[in-house]
Design brief:
Blueprint: E1 7-13, E2 20-24, H1 27-38, E3 45-52, H2 67-72, E4 76-79, E5 85-88, E6 91-94, H3 98-106, E7 112-118, E8 123-129, H4 132-140, E9 147-154, H5 158-168, E10 173-175, E11 178-180, H6 183-196, H7 216-220
Antiparallel strand pairs: 1-2, 1-3, 4-5, 5-6, 7-8, 7-9, 8-11, 10-11
InterPro entries: Phage_T5_Orf172_DNA-bd
Pfam family, one: MUG113
Organism: Flavobacterium psychrolimnae
Length: about 230
């Protein structure tokens, strides 16, 4: 018997370059549609059911959802330009990062400001670099902490941007380039930087970054980095 219920499926590729949602009747059909459009092999992708489709604006069997579909099915669009970011039930879903990879590759010898999040904490490092690839490798080498490169803003005026942003967040400073930020403060910091380099702001406040990424036990322990000497940098 044919399944007439459609679902949102989160489809990930091995390289994470094209991760995105597909509307389909089941996981296999979502994966098959994804590989036909994006050019992957079926064994290199995996679909996970996220929720049922309540509202749809396309009668095709499989397709990529529109922004209207996200909104009317209870998703929140945080960032509408590529790579998109949407939220559902406290979890963040980021569109495949191929664009960010290209951007970083092109700007690897240019100045820019980065925001790096230390996982299991509310600590963010805001600094500048003239080689983002090299800086990322420094964080990955000999670092006992898990971290996420949250944003990178390419600009020749990164020193000025860093100075302005550090002054704006002086009340949140933990040590040197480390700041304790909640969702609202992180949104304001990102929008300040985006405005500085001529990009539009995020559409909405970024929900609590930690709540969607941590288990309840980890959430209760998110301030476990208490000694500044414990910081990786």
């Amino acid at each position: 018997m044919k399944n007439y219920t459609k679902n949102f499926y989160w489809v990930k590729s091995d390289d994470n370059h094209e991760n995105w949602f597909v509307i389909a009747h089941d996981e296999y059909l979502a994966e098959r549609f994804f590989v036909e459009i994006e050019g992957y092999d079926l064994e290199d992708v995996q679909a996970t059911e996220i929720c049922n489709v309540i509202f749809e604006d396309d009668d095709a069997d499989e397709y990529f959802p529109s922004n209207e579909m996200f909104i009317k099915n209870g998703f929140e669009i945080i960032k509408s330009d590529v790579p998109m970011i949407v939220w559902k039930n406290g979890k963040k879903y980021c569109q495949g990062d191929i664009i960010h990879c290209i951007k970083i590759e092109k700007s690897k010898t240019k100045f820019g400001l980065y925001i790096i999040h230390t996982d299991n904490s509310d600590l963010f490092k805001i600094g500048i670099t003239k080689n983002i690839n090299q800086r990322i490798k420094q964080f990955e080498t000999g670092n006992p902490f898990e971290f996420t490169l949250y944003e990178f803003f390419e600009t020749e005026n990164c020193r000025e941007l860093e100075s302005l942003l550090h002054k704006k967040l002086k009340g949140n400073r933990y040590r040197k380039e480390w700041f304790r930020l909640n969702a609202e403060e992180l949104t304001q910091a990102c929008n300040f930087a985006r405005n500085f380099i001529g990009l539009p702001p995020y559409l909405n406040e970024i929900p609590d970054l930690l709540s969607g990424l941590l288990t309840e036990e980890e959430q209760n322990d998110k301030n476990k980095i208490k000694n500044e000497d414990d910081l990786p940098f």
